[in-house]
Design a protein that fits this description.
Length: 223
């Protein structure tokens, strides 16, 4: 839990951006293709890692076995749900994704934002995606216990509540399975290693594969 607290704390100060690469023109409108956009903060932007070592890059590599599946990373280190709400419409217009993996809210929680404002911002992102015919996969987050049991529980509950309300898929906790294990962190004790990124891919893939066409999921899973 100590390592988890440190990881979350770095989100507030990380400032590197990863705007991602646009999908091939017309890909979202071409029958048989699937464009996936990751819309998150530094945990998805690969902060502190070599260019291709982050979990999004690893997932993209896995999906390359299916040539009609495209992955875009539209994550920014230090991003909040409020910030994501302000830029989601433009991101949807630019990339026209079929699936959006929303990984936001941790920074809002660390700043002590109201539970209602976090919920409203995440809900606005989800609704914008649905208006644009994009399917949403919501990645849940948790806060360290020093924020108080009432606040941390209400924060954690935001994700399953929104998933149920809007009928979307949910990864209960993005960092599940390694947050308290020292061997999954770099020498500074702050940033997840490449091995930890592989754990994140596993957490995402368990749900994402159920959202892809059967042939896409099988091809990527064999890659």
């Amino acid at each position: 839990m100590k390592n988890f607290l440190i990881i979350l704390s770095i989100l507030l100060t990380a400032g590197a951006a990863n705007p991602g690469t646009a999908a091939p023109p017309g890909s979202a409108a071409t029958p048989g293709t699937t464009t996936i956009m990751v819309f998150g903060d530094s945990l998805s932007a690969g902060y502190g890692l070599p260019r291709d070592a982050g979990w999004v890059s690893l997932l993209k590599r896995q999906l390359q076995t299916q040539p009609q599946t495209y992955l875009i990373n539209n994550s920014i280190s230090g991003e909040t749900a409020a910030g994501g709400r302000a830029r989601i419409e433009q991101a949807l217009k630019t990339h026209r994704p079929d699936i959006v993996i929303v990984e936001l809210g941790g920074n809002d929680g660390l700043r002590g934002a109201s539970i209602e404002s976090i919920r409203e911002d995440l809900e606005a992102i989800i609704e914008a995606c649905q208006r644009n015919k994009a399917i949403v996969l919501l990645a849940g987050m948790q806060l360290p216990p020093n924020y108080g049991i009432t606040y941390t529980q209400k924060f954690q509950d935001i994700y399953p509540q929104l998933a149920k309300r809007h009928g979307i898929k949910l990864v209960p906790f993005l960092l599940d399975g390694f947050g308290s294990k020292r061997e999954f962190f770099q020498a500074d004790g702050i940033h997840p290693t490449a091995q930890a990124q592989e754990k994140i891919v596993e957490n995402i893939w368990k749900v994402l594969k159920t959202m892809l066409k059967p042939q896409q999921a099988v091809a990527a899973g064999n890659g």
